[in-house]
């Protein structure tokens, strides 16, 4: 199944490692360091034209990708769960 992250970006749900709230996750020094490292490595894609609210970590073909989204982590989690429910029908 797929998860819409905003704008024209859609990812496969089986590639998602985690969905994180940007405000609470960046309180941690480790999270800030992780995002900085990912950005320097060119693994960050900003799909937000507005204030970013969440980031999604994906792993596809052994390559890490981080997506910054204006959609809240709670909404993304609901969407991902909804898609899982449909897949189980």
Note the run of SSEs as H and E. Answer: EEEHHEEEH
Number of alpha- plus pi-helical segments: 3
User: What's the count of strands?
Assistant: 6
Q: What best-fitting shape do the alpha-carbon axes yield?
A: globular
The major sheet is characterized as: 4 strands, mixed
- Helix-strand category: alpha+beta
Main-sheet strand order equals 3-5-6-4
Overall structural domain count: 1
Uncertain regions: pLDDT < 50 for 5+ in a row?
none
Please tell me the overall pLDDT: 89
Helical percentage: 25-40%
What is Rg? 13 Å
> Which percent band covers the strand fraction?
35-45%
Distance between the termini: 13 Å
Could you please describe the fold and organization of this structure?
The chain has 89 residues and is an alpha+beta fold. 35% of the residues lie in helices and 36% in strands. It has one domain (2-87). The strands form two sheets. The protein has a four-stranded mixed sheet. The longest helix is centred in the C-terminal third of the chain and has 15 residues, at 73-87. The two termini are 13 Å apart. The mean pLDDT is 89.
Summarize the structure.
The chain is α+β, with helices and mostly antiparallel strands. It has helices at residues 22-25, 29-40, 73-87, and strands at 2-6, 9-12, 16-21, 44-46, 54-60, 63-69.
């Amino acid at each position: 199944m797929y998860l819409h992250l905003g704008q024209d970006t859609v990812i496969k749900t089986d590639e998602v490692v985690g969905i994180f709230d940007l405000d609470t996750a960046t309180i941690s020094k480790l999270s800030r360091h992780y995002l900085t490292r990912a950005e320097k490595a060119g693994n960050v894609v900003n799909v937000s034209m507005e204030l970013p609210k969440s980031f999604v970590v994906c792993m596809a073909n052994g390559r890490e990708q981080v997506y910054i989204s204006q959609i809240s982590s709670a909404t993304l989690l609901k969407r991902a769960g909804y898609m899982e429910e449909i897949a189980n029908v």
